[in-house]
């Protein structure tokens, strides 16, 4: 027997909700019930408790996504589950698809080595501070970068302190003395050893990351691999990822060749050579590079956050590795798994067409302004009129808020957000900040739907 769902809504949204459900042709049966209010978003748990006298034989109740109040208590009172749906009705098909899929993003296979590139120039305390920052953003290993011809007298103190704090540590240098010191100080990994410096691995317990003796010299890499295998020692192989226009495509081919020849060895990809050395947003680069890791079973990456444009590289790589793991596990494309890697665009930026927005506007009977966007531009409307533009300044003369500074400021903020969303192809929801995925650290607290949103500063009366 199929599930029966009761959809609660308001007068303005009822017609559209019925049309969407009819088009969906869902496997479940349903009842749409208008709860006796105009705007569905103003629905509350207390209102439902007072007004809902019949649950129409439902197995569960779906309420609007912005419905405030304690739905868990309401569920107990009604004796059946009450859940919030999506904020936009047009997202209902995707909402039910996601609920059916339930993709787990808690698992991943790739370790993130996050490098502190200037460790010789900063204090032990600063290194530890950065290590915690990287760890909070997803790093598994803190990589201590050495600098050519630069003294590093506090190397042992840095490594020892990080180990005492519980971090896994790697040391990054091409100088034998640095590598030997780092290994003896307790580094878990050494970046990087090659055929001529492989003797260092005999002196320490650290796991070496192996690179070619000379650039592109896979024969020397083969000998280093075979030497470590003969000693039954753990190691990781890095054939070296080159920057764009300096051998990038050939280096990807090298990784493929090494993986084909050695199906089971551990490998590393130095993604920082692309994210740092390409002036483009790093979200897409990290998604693609972690996808390559997934295809080639590369289970370690080395990344950095030196350039300001790469300031979220670790956080982005963390989400990318989880998405790629899930996509691979489910044998699916890395689509519709998590929106966190889509900062500038949306899958469906304009859920409502202009005619649908005009139809809603025709039902409005109060003076409060609503702001929405469509492919055609920005739209603001209330009972007194409907106005459209692509430049918010063109709308100002029609709003008649010259003598209401607070309202004018509020509308300025909302229309500015709407313009940005329209220009980029992002989703805009009035009274909500634009979302930027994992590319930004939001400064606004998560909305608590158990409580009512307090009045903003432009609406507070003194």
What is the structure about, briefly put?
The chain is of the alpha/beta class. It is 37% helix and 15% strand.
Describe this protein with a few key phrases:
8-stranded parallel beta barrel; 4-stranded parallel sheet; 15 strands; 16 helices; elongated; single chain; 462 residues; alpha/beta
Written account of the structure:
The chain has 462 residues and is an alpha/beta fold. It has helices at 11-24, 45-51, 71-78, 92-101, 124-136, 155-164, 176-184, 200-203, 218-230, 248-261, 272-275, 282-296, 313-329, 354-361, 396-399, 405-424, and strands at 4-9, 29-34, 60-63, 82-84, 111-116, 141-145, 168-172, 189-193, 207-210, 236-237, 266-269, 300-303, 370-374, 377-382, 385-389. It has 16 helices and 15 strands.
Overall average pLDDT: 91
The best one-word shape is elongated
Beta-strand percentage range: 15-25%
The structural class is: alpha/beta
Q: Could you tell me how far the N terminus lies from the C terminus, measured between alpha carbons in angstroms? A: 58 Å
Rounded to the nearest angstrom, the radius of gyration is: 28 Å
The number of helices is 16
Number of strands: 15
Residue windows where pLDDT falls under 50 for at least 5 positions: none
State the strand order across the main sheet. 5-6-7-8-9-10-11-12
Helical percentage? 25-40%
Largest sheet properties: 8 strands, parallel, barrel
């Amino acid at each position: 027997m199929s599930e029966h769902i009761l959809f609660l809504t308001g007068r303005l949204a009822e017609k559209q909700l019925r049309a969407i459900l009819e088009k969906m042709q869902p496997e479940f049966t349903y009842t749409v019930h208008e709860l006796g209010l105009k705007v569905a978003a103003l629905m509350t748990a207390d209102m439902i408790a007072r007004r809902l006298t019949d649950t129409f034989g439902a197995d569960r109740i779906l309420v609007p996504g912005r419905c405030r109040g304690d739905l868990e208590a309401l569920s107990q009172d009604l004796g059946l589950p009450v859940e919030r749906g999506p904020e936009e009705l047009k997202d209902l098909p995707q909402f039910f698809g996601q609920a059916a899929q339930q993709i787990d993003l808690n698992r991943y296979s790739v370790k993130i080595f996050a490098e502190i590139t200037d460790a010789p120039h900063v204090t032990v305390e600063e290194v530890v501070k950065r290590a915690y920052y990287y760890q909070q953003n997803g790093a598994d290993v803190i990589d201590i970068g050495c600098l050519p011809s630069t003294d590093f007298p506090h190397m042992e103190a840095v490594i020892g302190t990080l180990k005492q704090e519980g971090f896994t540590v790697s040391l990054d240098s091409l100088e034998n003395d640095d590598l030997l010191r780092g290994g003896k100080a307790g580094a878990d990994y050494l970046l990087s050893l090659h055929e001529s410096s492989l003797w260092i691995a005999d002196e320490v317990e650290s796991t070496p990351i192996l690179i070619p003796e000379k650039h592109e010299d896979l024969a020397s890499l083969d000998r280093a691999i075979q030497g470590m295998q003969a000693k039954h020692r753990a190691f990781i192989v890095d054939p070296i990822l080159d920057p764009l226009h300096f051998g990038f495509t050939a280096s990807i081919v090298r990784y493929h060749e090494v993986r084909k020849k050695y199906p089971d060895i551990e490998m590393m990809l130095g993604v920082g050579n692309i994210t740092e050395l390409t002036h483009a947003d790093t979200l897409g680069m990290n998604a693609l590079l972690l996808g390559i890791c997934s295809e080639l079973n590369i289970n370690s990456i080395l990344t950095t956050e030196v350039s300001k444009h790469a300031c979220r590289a670790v956080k982005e790589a963390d989400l990318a590795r989880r998405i790629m793991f899930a996509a691979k596990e489910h044998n699916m494309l890395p689509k519709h798994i998590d929106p966190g890697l889509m900062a500038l665009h949306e899958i469906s930026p304009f859920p409502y067409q202009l005619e649908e927005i005009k139809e809603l506007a025709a039902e409005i009977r109060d003076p409060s302004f609503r702001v929405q966007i469509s492919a055609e531009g920005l739209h603001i409307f209330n009972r007194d009129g409907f106005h459209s533009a692509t430049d918010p300044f063109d709308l100002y003369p029609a709003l008649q808020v010259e003598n209401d500074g607070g309202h004018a400021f509020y509308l300025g903020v909302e229309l500015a957000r709407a313009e940005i969303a329209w220009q980029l192809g992002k989703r805009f929801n009035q009274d909500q900040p634009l979302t930027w995925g994992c590319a930004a650290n939001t400064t606004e607290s998560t909305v608590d739907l158990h409580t009512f949103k307090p009045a903003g500063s432009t609406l507070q009366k003194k």
